[in-house]
Design brief:
The chain has one domain: 2-Layer Sandwich (HIT family, subunit A). It has three helices and five strands. It has helices at about 5-10, 55-75, 125-130; strands at about 20, 25-30, 40-45, 80-85, 100-105. It has a five-stranded antiparallel sheet with strand order 1-2-3-5-4, with helices on one face. It is globular.
Length: about 130
């Protein structure tokens, strides 16, 4: 896609700090520099997000997420990783090319990744009744 910044990175029109690449996936460091090693994992085939991604591309991306995450923990000295994705504007997706974030973590690193607003009064049974696949 001509106006997609991630497609331009894949094509080499915009430089990146490549972490991993195979025939279906490209992974690179996020230039935001908000966390050490913050990595973005994207399919080479353009899709907007999880909701429109074909199963083969999605599987390739999540397998790469696992490979990179294992490498960070097993080979690079991290204790764990956060993996997250935003799909859709309402979910705060900012670049409309599917991507997963990997944040390598160390015990006691001081990063707080769960800024939730606290417990809410939610009837879990009614939520389950509405959302369960039938």
């Amino acid at each position: 896609m001509d106006d997609c910044i991630f497609c331009k990175i894949i094509d080499g029109a915009i430089p990146s700090y490549k972490i991993y690449e195979d025939d279906k996936v490209y992974a690179f460091l996020d230039i935001a520099c908000d966390a050490y090693g913050h990595t973005l994992v994207i399919p080479k085939r353009h899709c907007v997000n999880v909701l429109d991604c074909d199963p083969d591309s999605l599987a390739a991306v999540i397998n790469a997420v696992k490979t990179i995450s294992n490498h960070y923990v097993n080979d690079c000295g991290f204790d764990g990783v956060n993996v997250f994705n935003a799909s859709g504007k309402a979910a705060e997706q900012s670049v409309f090319h599917l991507h997963f974030h990997i944040i390598p973590r160390k015990n006691g690193d001081g990063l707080e990744m769960w800024p939730l607003s606290g417990k809410r009064d939610i009837d879990l049974q009614s939520v389950c009744d509405k959302l369960a696949l039938k």
